[in-house]
């Protein structure tokens, strides 16, 4: 494997931080290298908007902070944002023609937190339109390509976010996860990504898809780097009504995640060659049925054996309503989407049809012309299940199933296991264009991630192998924790990465 990256000597944020502080390299030089790398990989269609002037201005500010000794650990580190986080100096399109030219008058809270820490934004990243999709094929601006195999999807909806890290353009990026949209692209691009507990990261300024499910999360090369990003963006925000003030008695503020991570590592370090002794790993039998491909099953089994070698105990558990997560999610998420996307009517902002007769016709034509097929499909499904006569039969039933799914997870955590592990997706990344004639096939591939999202639990993906016909498509291991256990699962993932090299492998960009 080639180690082709824009920063060949920097494989981690810690290494880059050391080089910045010792003046071996400047933030401006790093930013320019990332911009050059983004330009050199244009064929992958990773970025939707780049503003070099704004990027280099942020880099210059970072260099000034470093010169004054006022730097944060992330000051000067190049990152990039999924194009559903609104930004003042870059267009925010949500991958849709509806917002093709929109520039926000304010920054999203996640963007604001990272900017305050001194990160340098390289640009906005490709994604499925309004985050609706599992392959980044639903972007109005064309699909993003997987850096490992350009005939494959990078996963979705945060495909550009995972591809930017895998391609070595940035060390970290932001994504959003509604039903698996951080974990799945991370798995398919061979990088690490985490979805935190719902409500721990502010949704203010994050364009909504499903409000009770959407959660921001970082993507990076390793669990260790994820700690630094997540620790900065996890904090209570009074501007977001869904953001929580305390996490099981601990204030929801910067420092919480990193302290929990360090405490977990410290407790492991005293156990010698078996640092994970006492850790019970729940392995749901429903995750290993006939729908799981042999290459994914083999990689997950090898990863579980590695954990056992480190002292962990494997426990078979049951999540009996796993299959019900698909129909329940695809009732709830479209229902919320139909409500959230009703604001795009061609009146206040966004796309407006050029020809129309009256207000109603203007709204109808604007939405029909600007929304892509998948978005229109989900709006129609959502409107249907919320309509009179069907609300009780579909929406309320789905909410009941959601509660039962959450109860299944809690029952497992209460008596059987400390964390849950399994595959992220039943298969490696599909080819671009596959499933075009089967509109719901991609929905079925979300079976292992949807239940976690509906329960609001923290979960992550880390690289654990390769599969596919040519053995060049990454596979991810999913690690699921109980509420507010982000620091714990990050430490458990880090321990695995200390003993394996899957996360260090880089694609050879063609």
UniProtKB/TrEMBL annotation:
Listed Pfam families: Amidase
Limits of the Amidase domain: 29-490
GO biological-process terms attached to the record: translation
SUPFAM superfamilies per record: Amidase signature (AS) enzymes
Catalytic reaction equation(s): L-glutamyl-tRNA(Gln) + L-glutamine + ATP + H2O = L-glutaminyl-tRNA(Gln) + L-glutamate + ADP + phosphate + H(+)
A molecular function (GO) term: ATP binding
Signal peptide: none
Superkingdom classification of source: Bacteria
EC number assigned by the record: 6.3.5.7
Location of the active site: 82 (charge relay system), 157 (charge relay system), 181 (acyl-ester intermediate)
Keywords: ATP-binding, Ligase, Nucleotide-binding, Protein biosynthesis
A GO cellular component annotation in the UniProt record: glutamyl-tRNA(Gln) amidotransferase complex
Function in brief: Allows the formation of correctly charged Gln-tRNA(Gln) through the transamidation of misacylated Glu-tRNA(Gln) in organisms which lack glutaminyl-tRNA synthetase. The reaction takes place in the presence of glutamine and ATP through an activated gamma-phospho-Glu-tRNA(Gln).
Subunit composition and interactions: Heterotrimer of A, B and C subunits.
Stated family: Belongs to the amidase family. GatA subfamily.
Protein name: Glutamyl-tRNA(Gln) amidotransferase subunit A
Organism the protein comes from: Advenella faeciporci
């Amino acid at each position: 494997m080639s180690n082709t990256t824009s920063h060949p000597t920097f494989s981690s944020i810690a290494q880059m931080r050391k080089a910045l502080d010792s003046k071996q390299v400047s933030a401006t030089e790093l930013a320019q290298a990332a911009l050059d790398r983004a330009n050199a990989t244009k064929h992958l269609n990773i970025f939707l908007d780049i503003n070099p002037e704004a990027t280099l201005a942020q880099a210059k500010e970072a260099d000034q902070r470093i010169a004054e000794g006022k730097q944060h650990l992330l000051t000067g580190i190049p990152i990039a944002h999924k194009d559903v986080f609104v930004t003042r100096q870059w267009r925010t399109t949500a991958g849709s023609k509806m917002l093709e030219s929109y520039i926000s008058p304010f920054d999203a809270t996640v963007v604001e937190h990272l900017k305050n820490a001194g990160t340098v934004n390289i640009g906005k990243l490709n994604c499925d339109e309004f985050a609706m999709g599992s392959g980044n094929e639903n972007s109005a601006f064309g699909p993003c390509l997987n850096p490992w195999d350009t005939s494959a999807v990078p996963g979705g909806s945060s495909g550009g976010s995972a591809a930017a890290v895998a391609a070595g353009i940035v060390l970290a990026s932001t994504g959003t996860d509604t039903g698996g949209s951080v974990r799945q692209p991370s798995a398919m691009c061979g990088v690490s990504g985490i979805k935190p507990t719902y409500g721990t990261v502010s949704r203010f300024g994050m364009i909504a898809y499903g409000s009770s499910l959407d959660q921001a999360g970082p993507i990076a090369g390793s669990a260790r780097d994820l700690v630094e990003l997540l620790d900065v963006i996890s904090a209570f925000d009074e501007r977001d009504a869904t953001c929580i003030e305390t996490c099981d008695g601990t204030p929801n503020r910067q420092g919480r995640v990193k302290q929990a991570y360090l405490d977990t590592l410290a407790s492991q370090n005293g156990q010698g060659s078996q640092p994970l002794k006492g850790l019970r790993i729940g392995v749901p039998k429903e995750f290993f049925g006939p729908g799981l491909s042999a290459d994914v099953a083999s990689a997950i089994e090898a990863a579980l054996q590695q954990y056992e070698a480190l002292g962990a105990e494997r426990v078979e558990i049951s999540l009996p309503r796993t299959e019900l997560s698909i129909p329940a999610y695809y009732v709830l998420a479209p229902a919320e989407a139909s409500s959230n996307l009703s604001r795009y009517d061609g009146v206040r902002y966004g796309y407006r049809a050029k020809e129309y007769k009256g207000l109603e016709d203007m709204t109808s034509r604007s939405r029909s012309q600007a929304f892509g097929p998948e978005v229109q499909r989900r709006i129609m499904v959502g409107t249907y299940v919320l309509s009179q006569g069907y609300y009780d039969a579909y929406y309320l039933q789905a909410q009941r199933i959601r509660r039962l799914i959450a109860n299944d997870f809690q029952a497992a955590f209460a008596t059987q296991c400390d964390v849950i592990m399994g595959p992220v997706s039943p298969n490696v990344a599909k080819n671009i264009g596959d499933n075009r004639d089967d509109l719901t096939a991609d929905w079925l591939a979300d079976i292992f991630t949807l239940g976690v999202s509906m329960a609001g639990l923290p979960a992550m993906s880390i690289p654990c192998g390769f599969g596919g016909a040519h053995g060049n498509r990454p596979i991810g291991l999913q690690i699921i924790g109980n509420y507010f256990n982000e620091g714990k699962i990050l430490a458990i993932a880090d321990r695995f990465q200390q003993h394996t090299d899957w996360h260090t492998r880089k694609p050879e960009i063609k």
